[in-house]
Amino acid sequence: MNLTAILSVSVILFSVIDIIGNIPIIVNMKKEGVDIHPLTATGSAAIIMFAFLFFGATILGIFGIDVSSFALAGALIIFFIGLEMILGIRFFRDTHEQGGSGSIVPIAFPLLAGAGTLTTIISLKAEFDNMAIVAGIVINLVIVYIILRSSDWITKKMSTQVSATLRKIFGILLIAIAIQMVRDNIL
To answer: What pLDDT score does 71 carry?
Structure first.
C-alpha cells in the first residue's frame, strides 16, 4: 500500500470534511439541546462515503444527476446552514423540535459526507486506487469520531461569547464555500 497516496487522500479529505471548522456548528447544536450520537453520525457518514466511493457515479446516474448538479444541491444546503449560523434562523427545526437527533442530518449529511466530500471522493478515483481512498476515509472517520466524542467537553470549555463569535465567522465561511461551489460548478 502506498503511504504517500494514503497521506495525500487523507489530507485532501480532511480539508474538505473540515471537522475542525465544523466544531462551532456542533457546539451550537449541543448548546441548543440537539442530541448528537458520535457513533451514529460517524457510521452514517461512513456508509454514505463508501457508497459514493464504490457506487457514486452509478447512484447519481440512476437519478439522471450529474456531479455538478449534486454539488450545487450540496452548496444550497451549506448556504442555508451558514445563514442559520449568522442570522439565528432555524431551517432544520422540525427534526430537532420533535426530540430528534442531529446525528444523521445535518451532521453526517451534509456536514461530514456532503456534496463537497462526495464529489471529492468520486474525483479521487481518477488519481488514486480504491485502497488508498478507503484508508483515507477511515483515517478521517477516526478523527471525526474523536472530535464528536469530545464535543461535550469542547462545549463546556467554550464560553458563550466565543461560541457566538465562532458561529458567525464560520457561518460566513460556509456561505463563501457555498458560493465557491456554485461558481465552480456553473462556470
So the answer is: 77
